[in-house]
Amino acid sequence: MEEIGKVSQWVFHLGDTRLVVNSETLLMTWVVMALVLAFGWIATRGRGMVPGPWQNLAELLVQWFKELVRDALGEAYEKRYFPLICALFIFLLLCNWVGVIPGLSEPTKDINTTLGLGIMGFFIAHGTAIKVKGVKQYLKEYFRPIFFMMPLNVVGELAKVISISFRLFGNIMGGSIIIIVVSHLVYGLVLPPFLYAFFGLFVGTVQAFVFMMLTLVYISVQIR
Amino acid sequence: MELTDWVKVAAFVGAGLSMGFGAIGSGMGEGYAANKACEGMGRQPAVADELLRTMLVGQAVAESTGIYSLVVALLLLFRDFSVVNFMEIPAFLAAGLCMGLGAIVPGVGEGFVAGSACESIARNPETSGVIIRTMLVGQAVAESTGIYALVVSLLLIFVV
Fold this sequence. Notes:
The structure holds 2 protein chains of 2 kinds. By secondary structure, chain A is mainly alpha-helical. In chain A, 74% of the residues lie in helices and 5% in strands.
């Protein structure tokens, strides 16, 4: 029960500045990155016309995401944004699933991970908008429909970042807190495996999909 | 009573308010989704599996504000009360009320989306892929205000 709200940290001192690193999140992110790389290596090893099971899975994912990105952004942008969207989904999926393994915890349980990814999506979407429409047209959009709507539009854009990152964080952290409390109440008997299956595998998949999909939608809103 | 006892009273009342109000919206929304799924199955028994899957996914997402309420209630119940200050009394009450009331309408709205998705799949089963995708994105946006309530509640619990 003591682990609720506790964060393991490494603190460094560089002169007067104090650097704090959330050690658990950092290590778990490395574990997830290693898993993603391992998946890529296994799937592409010994490629052939008759695909093995791993190659088949990878081809399925790639094809599915290509269609998704083409539907949302159109042919012209498919090639540029498909790797980002595919990588984002696989990374988040493994992040949310890794907590099921005993001893490991989800990096997405930390607000820094999700907020970082949310801010990344924000900058990519707005960078695309400036590139496609030009600075003048991009700034003009904020003054629609009337000029005094500008502050509301700016707040609306910033609120997107908050809601997308806190949605993932809230669901994953909420699930882990409920698992800790219930395991404590029933002394780890019977219930926790079902909770892991629901919060880890099911909610994790849905939330990874929602995060990926919303990033894609935000980009497509800026392009159109 | 001492200050610690008053803080405990505030935390317990806050936990009750949070989960009590928070259960309203999700329950209504999920019931509506199940209602529409049953209707659709009566009309199109051939797509019963697809409808069941859509209903369960939609309900699970509609339940997330209820889960946030549960999280806030658990955080208030299992708090460490050894160090307390006076401002925690209003903060805990406000945290419970904020999450409880904030969870109602997003839950209902997300349930409506799930119900309409089931209805549309029963009417036009070929478009189920697009419908499920739109349902998930729409529910995610409808949930935003519930997430803001969660953010404010967490700030009230941990920062004050």
